[in-house]
Amino acid sequence: MNGQYADEGVVGAKRVTVEDYEYAAITAGRTRIIIGVLAFGLALFLLMARLAEVSVLRAAPEPYSSRAHDLATRADILDRNDEILATTLDTYLLYGVPGKIWDPVETTQALTAALPDLDPADIERRLTSDKSKVYLKRNLTPRERQAVFSLGMPGLEFEIEPRRIYPRGHLASHVLGWTNVDLVGAAGAERAFEQQLSADNSGPKRLSVDMRIQHALDDELRAGMKRFQAKAVAGIVMDVTTGEILAMSSKPDFDPNRFGTALPNDRLNRATMSTYELGSVFKPLTTAMALEAGIDPNEQMPVHKPIVIRKKLIKDDHPLKAPAGMFDILAKSSNRGVTLYATRVGEARQRDFLRKLGLFDRVPIELAESAAPQLPREWQDLTTATVSYGHGLSVTPLALAAASAPLFNGGWYIAPTLEYQSPGKARPRRRVMTEQTASTMTDMMRYVVTDGTGRNAAVRGYGVMGKTGTAEKPGGKAGYQENNLVTSFISAFPYEDPKYLILITYDEPQAAEGTWGYATAGWNAAPTAGAVISRMVSILGLRREDTTQVASRAGGRP
Amino acid sequence: MKRFGSFLLIVLGFCLIAGLYLISARTQSAGKEAGRLERTLEQERAAIAVLKAEIAHLESPQRLSDLSAKHLGLRPTEPDQILTLDDVVVRVPLRAVPEQVSP
User: Fold this and answer.
1) Cβ separation of A169 and B78 shorter than 8 Å?
2) Cα separation of B36 and B25, whole Å?
């Protein structure tokens, strides 16, 4: 249209300028419309582009999780059969926001009705304070939280607060240890395996401990401590083929759920932290050393004659009236016999042998609570004699258990462990005596139970081997206190293929009814070990051995 | 024809916008649902952990042995109480099978 008018203007002879107001208005209007459409189109495009961006291009937001990621978590601890020994539960921390509370008196009444252990006066005082947040109660169970929640009171709020729970109470308390309030391991396995337990996404930690055996051991030790009125008692059950600790117990014990209220004396793990002069339970080690040195076990030693070293008379509790061989020296627990062996083998080899058995160092177990032994200050001929029957050298019960295991597993030293070992997995081990020596030692220790001081540990049909040890505690005028004893029994079974080692140590046991006035190891530690073994065989479902055959093998000694 | 085309395009645009809106609304509600399920899952997990701990407490060997001693009069088994089939066979010898009477 625009062109049409212009053409007509050109066709005319004269140049006529026609002012067309409408045309100008329309042109202007058109431009505006085009601008408007463009603006609208642009806005629409922007909207669509933004919508497309929001809906399609942008990644979906992370799904909301109620569990804040900064909350500490800690893996469970299981026993070797996957039974829970320690777990972490969410508990709730109840706090009040005084600014949001309508009526402090009514709130207090409702709250103390729901949680009767709270003190009304104290709660009311806190709720009327001018703080922005007041803590009312820690560690609410889910049920308590629900009770408070159903009150429907404004101004009562919760925070999640994880807490370590030991559902089995006292069971294996010294093995498990405890954590501090920030869930950091402070003792026992909680401390030893801290890294694995606190790592993100770590699975539960499986210990070598068997809860059932642990309970049997706990139960027998508790009963024994009561019966013999002992100051304390420690017990260890170990698998001699793998070094796994199947149970470890120390009495008195504590409840790790309330470790804060436990006395230091109860928290002390006597199996790994207390060092004792353990006495005659060292004799098997001395006889093994004698065998290693090539001494003939049948050689008759003059044990009926008195022996004096540096003016000290070596005494025997059950003096033999004639020369005796190694079997009888061990079975009758003759101090003179092992003194003769140790003296003949010599100081250097004795020290070397004991060092090989790990008795000069702290036991290389995962626990931080593992005490170093107390060694004699100087090693003279008298030291050689006394150490041969377990005096003058203080070690932990666990150290003795680890040192005695080679007698039963064919001569290998294997460091004890609290970690579960899958079957068939080889553990590092080192040879400390020949297989022949170990085999003779099992024969001898079987003989101690059938014919010697360890008779009270016998469990018919299960070939128990063992050795008693009664030691007087150091101190007093004569150097030793006659009435303060430490009695131990080191034992293993079954005789045909030894697998389980049991060590029981009583600290200051007394004579009790049925012990004929004796407080020696044969009357307390040995029967306790026997009781633990007879409970273990039914727990583990072990088959009875042919006793007649066993008797003939032990009886077949020279 | 051209106008019709533009109209169609605009309608199509609006349809797409509407479609996008619906999808994004559904995504949002699905997201909320996922969050809700996640929370439920977390609560259920916590509840399971509590129940497991409770079971572990109730199944504690000490508690069970106390209860069985109190209510059932049970004690730990003695090794002599366990017999294998072989032991039983030795104690109760099998009777000889009577000879079949042939017709």
Assistant:
1) no
2) 17
CB contact under 8 A, A66 and B81: no
The answer to ipTM > 0.95 is no
Among residues A235, A346, A62, which one has the least CA distance to residue B35? A62
**Which of A531, A525, A532 lies closest to A279 in space, CA to CA?**
A525
- Chain-chain contact of B77 with A66 (C-beta, under 8 angstroms): no
> What kind and span of H or E run contains A307?
strand A307-309
Q: Is A63 on the interface with B (CB under 8 A)?
A: yes
**Structure letter (DSSP) for residue A301:** B
Residue A28's region, left for phi above 0, alpha for psi from -120 to 50, else beta, is: alpha
- Among the listed residues A212, A178, A220, the one whose alpha carbon sits nearest the alpha carbon of residue A197: A178
Give the pLDDT of chain A (558 residues) as one tens digit per residue. Answer: 444 555 555 555 677 777 778 888 888 889 999 999 999 989 988 987 887 777 666 666 665 554 544 555 889 999 999 999 999 888 888 888 888 888 888 888 888 888 888 888 888 888 888 888 888 888 887 788 888 888 888 888 888 888 899 999 999 999 999 998 888 998 999 999 999 998 877 789 999 999 999 999 999 999 999 999 999 999 999 999 999 999 999 999 999 988 888 898 999 999 999 999 999 999 999 999 999 988 888 888 888 888 888 878 888 878 888 889 999 999 888 999 999 999 999 888 999 999 999 999 999 999 998 999 998 888 888 888 989 999 989 999 999 999 999 999 999 999 999 999 988 888 899 999 999 999 999 999 999 999 888 888 988 888 899 999 999 888 766 677 877 889 999 999 899 889 999 999 999 998 888 778 788 888 899 999 999 999 999 888 887 775 544 444 444 443
Q: Say if residue B46 is exposed, middle or buried (CB neighbours under 10 Å; 0-12, 13-18, 19+).
A: middle
* Cα distances (Å, whole numbers) of residue A269 to A234, A397, A528: 8, 10, 19
In the three-class reduction of DSSP (H, G, I as helix; E, B as strand; rest coil), residue A125 is classed as: helix
Measured in whole angstroms, how far is the alpha carbon of residue A213 from the centre of its chain? 14
Q: Which helix (DSSP H) or strand (DSSP E) does residue A498 occupy?
A: none
List of domains in chain A:
79-165 (3.90.1310.10), 214-555 (3.40.710.10)
Taking the C-alpha atoms of B40, B42, B43 and B48 in order, what is their torsion angle to the nearest 10 degrees? Answer: 120
User: Catalytic residue numbers of A?
Assistant: 280
Place of tokens 């770590």: A202
Can you tell me the distance from the alpha carbon of A20 to that of A32, in angstroms, rounded to the nearest whole number? 19
Q: Does A548 touch chain B if contact means CB atoms closer than 8 Å? A: no
Select from A472, A484, A488 the least CA-distant residue to A521: A488
Q: SS3 of A297, please?
A: coil
How many CA within 13 A on the CB side of residue A47?
A: 13
Q: How many residues comprise chain A?
A: 558
Angle, alpha carbons A451-A456-A459 (nearest 5°): 90
Q: Which of B20, B80, B84 sits opposite A51 (nearest CB)?
A: B20
* Three-class HEC string of chain B: CHHHHHHHHHHHHHHHHHHHHHHHHHHHHHHHHHHHHHHHHHHHHHHHHHHHHHHHHHCCHHHHHHHHHHHHCCCCCCHHHCCCHHHHHHHCCCCCCCCCCCC
